[in-house]
Specification:
The complex is a heterodimer of chains A (127) and B (271).
Chain A: H1 2-5, H2 14-18, H3 20-23, H4 29-33, H5 49-53, H6 60-71, H7 75-87, H8 97-102, H9 113-120
Helix pairs in contact in A: 7-9
Chain B: E1 2-7, H1 9-14, H2 17-29, E2 32-36, H3 57-69, E3 72-75, H4 78-93, H5 95-107, E4 118-120, H6 121-127, H7 129-135, E5 143-147, H8 156-159, H9 169-176, E6 180-181, H10 200-216, E7 221-224, H11 227-235, E8 248-250, H12 251-258
Parallel strand pairs in B: 1-2, 1-3, 3-4, 5-6, 5-7, 7-8
Helix pairs in contact in B: 2-12, 4-5, 6-9
Classes of the chains: A mainly alpha (127), B alpha/beta (271).
């Protein structure tokens, strides 16, 4: 897998050394970059130390997006995405305005299913 | 009075009311009039990393809302900040993408040119550090460790000149409040919150390691400035099996405390 990443990667391991997940023996995008095989793309915490530290300028974000598509979406993240498309809100049906009122906060109105659908629907012939 | 729109994000909107209340109080103190999102929509941060290629229409909506009012958007989470900045960069670079986003926004009566300024609350607070310093009435006199909102600092390609890998802003503000800032080995490691939904056990281990590191260094309190950090380090702390728990409080809350705001104006402290 690592060989697919980028010809520029010279396996210096600095990304892995900077990555808290890999340092704790977890699989993340940096372990994959260094050819340690495992489904780890979803365990990248998106802190982006690796991108800052890579001396070769490897497109680590691009690689991670590709690997996440290949691995498929974890169930709990799929639930959050369903919430976005139903309400425009990650937590779907969770009610929050009563407690917001108790804190003296203005009620939050969600964009809602119809408007999210309008926002996300593609144009005919659009790539 | 400068006007800005507050974008709480899904997490803070529904779960971290104390963070939002304190943020509003400090923004008001700094002379900023807070406007609200008329209709809230998720920023799309969880769709960005490889879920859907059309994720950009979600942040474009909120950015367009702010642009229609001619104001900057204030964020409270690192991930919302990063997503809005990434969207702005791509929409500026790729006119076709901006055109397609505008086709969709037009259905909601909106349009976007790509010019909305995105500011995380920490940036506003550090700009106001002199006023905060001059307003301290209850110096904190405690040992405070920091957990920095990493996604507002990196990657530099997205966030610009926000000083990648160096995190002075929170240090400067918390020192100003009369607290002793405690350095600790895990300070610059990610808290782990963003993997809660893909590997909860690992997220709890990462969080535990961070909190233990802060406690061992003598911290009495951990200060954060991101809803994701609050989610893991505060709300999930009880699941980590820590020998000694540590209070985790947002930066706006401890500023309110040092500035002597009445408790009912700064959100409830959990600890």
């Amino acid at each position: 897998m690592g060989t697919e990443v980028a010809k520029e990667c010279d396996q210096c391991m600095r990304c892995a050394d900077s990555c808290i997940i890999t340092r704790m023996n977890g699989h993340s995008i940096t372990s994959e970059l260094n050819e340690i095989i495992g489904d780890g793309a979803w365990n990248c915490a998106n802190c982006w130390k690796c991108i800052e530290i890579c001396p070769q300028g490897v497109d680590i974000f691009g690689f991670m997006m590709k690997r996440r598509k290949e691995e498929g979406i974890p169930e709990l993240i799929r639930k959050g995405i369903d919430g976005i498309f139903r309400k425009g809100f990650w937590f779907g049906d969770i009610q929050f305005n009563e407690i917001r009122e108790a804190f003296g906060l203005p009620a939050g109105k969600l964009l809602g299913r119809k408007k999210v659908a309008l926002l996300m629907a593609g144009e005919e012939g659009e790539s | 009075m400068e006007r800005m729109i507050l974008y709480p994000g899904c997490l803070v909107l529904s779960r971290f009311h104390e963070y939002e209340v304190a943020s509003r109080q400090i923004l008001k103190k700094l002379g900023i009039e807070v406007l609200d999102m008329e209709e809230f929509c998720c920023c799309g941060s969880s769709l960005v990393p490889g879920v859907r290629d059309d994720w950009i229409n979600l942040p474009a909506y909120s950015l367009a809302r702010a642009e229609s009012l001619g104001v900057a958007i204030i964020t409270l989470c690192g991930s919302c900040t990063n997503t809005f900045l990434r969207a702005n960069l791509l929409l500026e670079r790729e006119p076709d993408l901006l055109g397609r986003a505008n086709n969709r926004l037009g259905r909601l009566g909106l349009s976007y040119t790509g010019r909305t300024t995105v500011r995380h609350i920490l940036e506003i607070l550090v700009d106001g550090v002199d006023e905060i310093r001059n307003s301290v009435v209850n110096p904190l006199n405690s040992k405070v460790a920091l957990s920095h909102p990493c996604q507002i600092m990196r990657p530099s390609e997205i966030v610009g000149k926000r000083n990648p890998l160096k995190f002075q802003a929170m240090h400067e503000i918390v020192s100003t409040l009369g607290a002793e800032v405690v350095d600790y080995p895990a300070e610059h490691d990610c808290c782990g919150s963003t993997i809660l939904l893909s590997d909860k056990a690992m997220a709890l281990e990462v969080g535990k390691r961070k909190l233990e590191s802060a406690t061992k260094a003598g911290a009495e309190l951990l200060c954060v400035c991101c809803g994701n950090c609050l989610l893991l380090l505060d709300r999930h702390q009880g699941q980590m099996g820590l020998k000694k728990r540590i209070p985790v409080v947002s930066l706006p809350q401890i500023i309110c405390l040092a500035l002597g705001f009445p408790r009912n104006e700064m959100g409830t402290l959990h600890h």
